[in-house]
Amino acid sequence: MVPAAAQGQQAPTAAPQQAAATPAGPNAAAANPSATPAATDPTPGASAVAPATGAAPAFDYAKPTPGIGQPDGRAGLQDQFTPVGREASAFHNNWLLVLCAAISLLVLALLVWTILRYRRGANPTPSRTSHNTAVEVAWTLLPVLVLVAIAVPSIRLIRHQYSPPPADLTIKVVGNQWYWTYQYPDNGGFEIVSNMLKEKGEAAAGTRFRTDDDGPRLLAVDERMVIPAGKVVKFIVTSNDVIHSFAMPAFWTKTDANPGILNETWVKVDRPGVYFGQCSELCGARHGFMPIAIEVVSPERFAQWVALKGGTMPGATPAAAPDSTAATTVSPAAAPTAAAPANSSAPAAGAAN
């Protein structure tokens, strides 16, 4: 015969196990049809809406903008949204292409003039000139000047690219076969895992598949990297297995991810939106299925996203973790009180015998 007081002490021990075994969420009844439905308060009031007020709101991810941060069929570079990207794009479009076109036209003109001027019909007696100082100086000096004209802005661009300002946020980018992981050491060290979303006909039943709101085919992911707009973000790039490459065309960023090596790059994006890239280093059978999606949001929305991921903002005091031993700790004052019913029941049991 078990005393009533002992039965009262064993009951709370089984409750957490039963609660843990019961699935949570709207599909709980379907997952466990034999479970006894919990009692509900039929009266609409504070108790009916209390769980909703405690639930964390879902983060509202942005929809991609066609032609921004993704391929759109153009022959040239994508629009750039970082200071380094805008400088590099202007250098490419306004100087390199113009210089290449001018050199090509000059060579073509010289070639056409030589063909017409020194053909057999117009020049039956060929010249026997073997040395011309002016021509030799010209074809030596002009290429040197062209190289100097390319080198000066190139060195300036490299200096800007590899001399980053102080970072406001650091993200560790880790390449894996064949997905990416992003760690936020400045925000509590939480990590997100990013995989490509499959098409509706390719995804398993009941799993998430790509929609137009997620992004283009082969570029949409289930977890986007989120960064704040107007902040300097430093990427520390590495790999867990083979060589990958973290490439984001709209940011003018392409950094190899090597196992055992930490490479560094940075971006500063002012325009909120969604931007897409891919692994740009052959890394195995599914190399073409390692997309990168970065969403740029306002600092306020970034703080909201960090909180929803369980992280903290720099300078914020994290909430104190609950003490797991508090439920099983018995205070000295409560110990005699809890034992009294058991002791008092012993004489009664003896009298009954």
Outline of this structure?
It is built from 7 helices and 10 strands. The protein has 353 residues and is an alpha+beta fold. The longest helix has 35 residues.
Key descriptive features of the protein:
5-stranded mixed β-sheet, alpha+beta, single chain, 35% helix, disordered N terminus, Immunoglobulin-like
List the topology elements.
Elements: H1 4-21, H2 28-31, H3 46-54, H4 83-117, H5 133-161, E1 169-176, E2 179-184, E3 190-194, E4 225-228, E5 232-239, E6 244-248, E7 253-257, E8 263-268, E9 273-279, E10 291-297, H6 299-308, H7 334-352
Parallel strand pairs: 1-5, 4-10
Antiparallel strand pairs: 1-2, 2-3, 5-8, 6-7, 6-9, 9-10
Helix pairs in contact: 4-5
Cofactor: Cu cation
Protein name: Cytochrome c oxidase subunit 2
InterPro entries: CcO_II, CcO_II-like_C, CcO_II_C, Copper_CuA, Cupredoxin, Cyt_c_oxidase_su2, Cyt_c_oxidase_su2_TM_dom, Cyt_c_oxidase_su2_TM_sf
